[in-house]
Amino acid sequence: IVGSKMIHFIYGDENREFLYFETLQSIKSKEKGIVEYIFDVATKEEDKFIEKLSFNSIFGARELLILKRAEKLTSIDWLLDIFSGIDTNSKEVIVDFHHSSDKKVDKLETRLKEMEKKGILKAYKSVDTENRNIGYIFENLKISEKDALQLLEMIGKNPYKVKNEIEKLKNYLGDESYSISSARKIITVEKEYQIYEIIERIMTNKVGEAFEYLNDNKEHMGILYSLYNEFEILKKMLDLKNQNINFSNNYNVFKGEFENYKTVFKNNGRVPHPYAIFNKKKYLENYTLEGVNEILYNCWETETNIKTGKIGMESGVERLITFISSKNNKK
């Protein structure tokens, strides 16, 4: 990653944190003894960063200056103007700039490309957080794609957390082979995955465990919205099934089949990962299309009644779970 350019401008979504780690490690491995200074725009340290950047020590010690959360600057052009007119020969510089994947940064990208051509800096753009996370898990645990996707669901998509949890899991496993049960013992599971597990209990008619979880965690609205989403997907799958479109139980085959119907599952302009849909196949035999339509109506009615104060949140969601249980074919 590290070339002759001294300023490394890293930008993009959460996935850029992998680029940040790689750049940092590469600099430190090539510059033994380099002195590191971290400045954070969130705590108004940009002026201190510029002051340190402008000062060249007479002792000639190599320095690494890191500016975090540069997206919080009033104007990123202000910083790029300074970079265009400053000598950084004795320093390595990393700038960390976050922006969501759906935000347009055409003006910034154009300027970064111009500065790269002039040799002022090197720009690194990150995309596709999920695939990068999965790649990191593959590389470190040597497990199947299916296992990697399930593990990613448990950990969450933040690259910092993925890196830390995978390191923790590797140390825990030692020479032992990977299993989801062993991972469950050591990693910190995301709240979203805990809700996912409770949804699984509800949809397989183990409602007692769901009630216990709700009693302890009070995640009633999270469960309600997740049930709504789960049965929306199941409705689409049952619609296809009723058209004699049946998906394979082999995940690798399913991925190819999913390509032909992925637009059916598009939500808010985004196509879900095929694994997220494949994981719902196990519920197809549990419900009829008519039953799913009734459940979806009850989800909507429950949410409306809670928001208008007609029923309490806890009693409303628990009543919904009982109704879903009554519609399960495998009681």
Summarize this structure as a short list of keywords or feature phrases.
single chain, 331 residues, alpha/beta, 15 helices, 5 strands, disordered N terminus
Task: Give an overview in words.
Helix 5 (129-141) crosses helix 6 and helix 5 packs parallel to helix 7 (159-173). It is built from 15 helices and five strands. The radius of gyration is 25 Å and the shape is elongated. Mean pLDDT is 85; it is low at 1-5. The chain has helices spanning 16-30, 46-54, 76-84, 106-117, 129-141, 145-155, 159-173, 180-186, 191-203, 207-217, 220-242, 251-258, 274-278, 289-307, 313-326, and strands at 7-12, 35-40, 63-68, 91-98, 122-126. 56% of the residues lie in helices and 9% in strands. The protein has a five-stranded parallel sheet with strand order 2-3-4-1-5, with helices on both faces. It has 331 residues and is an alpha/beta fold.
How are the strands ordered across the major sheet? Answer: 2-3-4-1-5
- In whole angstroms, the N-to-C terminal distance is 57 Å
Helix content: 55-70%
- SSE order, as H and E? EHEHEHEHEHHHHHHHHHHH
- Overall residue-averaged pLDDT value: 85
Number of DSSP strands? 5
Low-confidence stretches: 1-5
Helix count, DSSP H or I runs of 4 or more residues: 15
Shape: elongated
Oligomer: single chain
Strand content: 5-15%
C-alpha Rg, in Å?
25 Å
Structural class: alpha/beta
Q: Sketch the major β-sheet.
A: 5 strands, parallel
